[in-house]
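For consistency, the fold was encoded as tokens, as this record shows:
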Amino acid sequence: NKFQDFSEQLHRGVHNFAAHTLKIALTNTAPSASNTVLADITQIANGNGYTTGGTAVPNVSLTETGGTSTVKGDKVTFSATGAVGPFRYAVLYNDTPTSPADPLIAWWDYGSSLTLAAGESFEVKPSNLDAGGTLFTHS
């Protein structure tokens, strides 16, 4: 699911996928397509393996073919040292820009709320791949 403001911020030059840090944050509150920045998202509680602000997506890359851009990245793993959650949504955002700060890109709905117990982990795997999976395309 794409946040509506992402298209505008993309055209305003806010996002530089070659140099910026993309992160995934967790929430149990359904995002709205009209949300614009991370501050609009109610994240789950900090601690036990979850850090407020989420976790960086490793190895983000951008390619373009035939007018369609593809942004890829490796999986993000959240490892619980105690109870984490509940959460249902993983939110992708750009952690680098300061104006607007932390603009939102997209989110995934896992269909039901999850709670991790100590020792459990949760992976956000773009295109269900460990490495180099598609986060999103834009044309």
